[in-house]
Structure formats: structure tokens, C-alpha cells
Amino acid sequence: MNNTGSQAADKQSSAWLNRRSYQKSWRSKIMNAEINEILAAKSNGKPGLISAQARELLNLRRLPAMLNTPQIAVLLGLAEHDIPLLIAAGLLKPLGNPPSNAVKYFGTVEVLEMAGESAILNKIRSTVYQYWRGKNAGNAKPHRSRNGRTRQGVAK
């Protein structure tokens, strides 16, 4: 009787140890996920890193009916600061009539339709390129050649 009792206790303790080691390995996989992502990104640039919030949004089975600016940026593959450009250009229209300083929400159906049409994606990308091209041109210093002239005229 003592022998079977000790065998049962040994089985329980070994099962507990196996469960415990499984939990530790599972936790280490989760806890090291960020490190693993960084290491994977450094290896030939594959795969790219995305934020945890973006990954959660993209892994949802069903998207919410309304999306905010960061979520729209993730779905369209843009930076969050590019969304106001699209609103100003009339390519994106927020739901309702929000004040300028309010959080803007957009219809998911409309955004997904936009993402499915290459002509609209082309307009979106062109708008962003055009904005940053103009922004960067304003910040550029005039180029001086050896004769002291700039491309626009005589240097001052």
C-alpha cells in the first residue's frame, strides 16, 4: 500500500513538474516575442515589425464598424500622420461632423472598399508623396555651384 501510494505521489509530482516546465516554456515564448521579432527583423529585413496593437487589429475575425485614425493607418499601410492629409484632400471622410480637435472615426466598409481599389490607392499614395515632396522642397537649402550661383539665381 505504501508502494502504490508513493507511486501515485511520484506520478502527481512528475505531472506537476511537466506542467510547470511547459508553462515556463510557453511564457518564455510569449515574453521573448518582442526580442524574437526584433531578431527576425534584423535578419535580412524579413519579416517587418509591426506594433502589437496593429497585429491585434489585423488578426481580428471581424473588424469594428468604426475605426479611428491609427487603425485606418494600419489598414491602409500608412503612417498615422498621413491620415489628416487624406482628409484634407477629400479622399477620406470622417463619420458625422466632428470638430477639428476631436477623434475622427471612419466607416470600416468604406475604408475596405478603398483598400480594394488600386485607383484609389494610387490617389492616396500620390497625395502623400506630393505633400512630402512640397514639404521637403521648402526645407531644402539652395544648392551653390562653384561659381557662386544657385539653381534659382545668384546667391546672396
Protein topology:
Layout: H1 2-31, H2 33-42, H3 52-58, E1 66-68, H4 69-76, H5 83-89, E2 105-107, H6 108-116, H7 118-139
In whole angstroms, how far apart are the ends? 103 Å
Q: Structural class given helices, strands, pairing?
A: mainly alpha
> In what order do the strands lie side by side in the largest sheet?
1-2
Query: What is the H-and-E element order?
Result: HHHEHHEHH
Helical amount: 55-70%
Shape: flat
Q: Work out the oligomeric state of the chains in this entry.
A: single chain
Strand content: under 5%
Q: What would CATH call the architecture of the largest domain? A: Orthogonal Bundle
CATH fold field value of the largest domain:
Multidrug-efflux Transporter Regulator, Chain: A, Domain 2
> Mind describing the biggest β-sheet?
2 strands, antiparallel
Low-confidence stretches: none
CATH top-level class of the largest domain: Mainly Alpha
Rounded mean pLDDT is 75
